[in-house]
Description:
The protein has one domain (about 5-239): Rossmann fold (3-Layer(aba) Sandwich), CATH 3.40.50. Helix content is about 50%, strand content about 15%. It has helices at about 15-25, 40-50, 65-70, 95-120, 140-160, 175-180, 195-205, 220-225, 230-239; strands spanning about 5-10, 30-35, 50-55, 75-80, 125-130, 165-170, 175, 190, 210-215. It has a 7-stranded parallel sheet, sandwiched between helices. A two-stranded parallel sheet has the order 7-8. α4 (about 95-120) packs parallel to α5 (about 140-160) and α8 packs across α9 (about 230-239). NADP nicotinamide-adenine-dinucleotide phosphate binds next to α1 and α6.
Amino acid sequence: MKVADRLALVTGASSGIGRAVALRLAGDGARLVLTGRDPERLQEVAERTGGKAVVADLAEGVDALLDGLPGRPALVVHNAGTGAAGPLEEMTSAQVDALIDLNLRAPVQLTRALLPGLRAERGHLVFVASIAALGVAGEAVYSATKAGLRGFADAVRIEAPEVGVTTVLPGAVDTPYLARRGYERTIPRPVRSDKVAEEIARAVRRGTSEVVVPRWLTLGAKVHGAAPTLFAKASRRFG
Ligand SMILES: NC(=O)c1ccc[n+]([C@@H]2O[C@H](COP(=O)([O-])OP(=O)(O)OC[C@H]3O[C@@H](n4cnc5c(N)ncnc54)[C@H](OP(=O)(O)O)[C@@H]3O)[C@@H](O)[C@H]2O)c1
């Protein structure tokens, strides 16, 4: 779809990939609704893009955001998310719930509420999942939320043919999230968030179903699909 003059909702717009997507969509002429928790960082993006800021904690539910929408979005970029790294047995029950609430429950509930409008607009949904959807050791719950998002997107794509649906599977992206997670590897080198935003803008324009960033990681997704045991062995060996 063309985004010019259409209303686009971006979650997690106050930082990292969501901020880059907001700037990119504004450059392409979209009208924006931006949501996040930090009012100052969100306001900065709103001022730069001419968007409306709606401060909301999506782990607490989606009603506050839905109440703050100025209209019916034609594009929804489900990007807000967080991670947790470490052995599964060491996670608390509350940490598990928090990840599922933000990364999976919120986009599912928002999509459920916004789908009638998206159908009417012949709009587009973007789900920012992760290459971790294939399964990453030490990130089992995070991986589960992202795999759940990918399966949800695949189902909505079939159920709502009027709506374009793109799933994005980034590898490491250079954002505050990655710094908080303590990512220190140089291979694969983190990609820039504006590169991910560019890929998302292109996927929306072309109606692409799934995008892996960087593209060479598509090989991992193919091996995972064709030979899951080999994928697990290689993943254990090379991380
Ligand atoms: N960076 C990577 O390497 C990487 C790789 C694969 C996938 N991803 C995915 O990309 C997405 C964006 O991540 P990022 O790297 O850009 O991280 P980021 O810079 O930390 O941004 C995360 C965004 O999510 C928002 N958010 C966090 N908790 C929230 C909550 N409870 N309610 C509402 N909003 C909340 C944050 O808002 P506030 O800051 O205002 O709280 C922020 O705008 C996530 O879904 C992440 O899983 C990232």
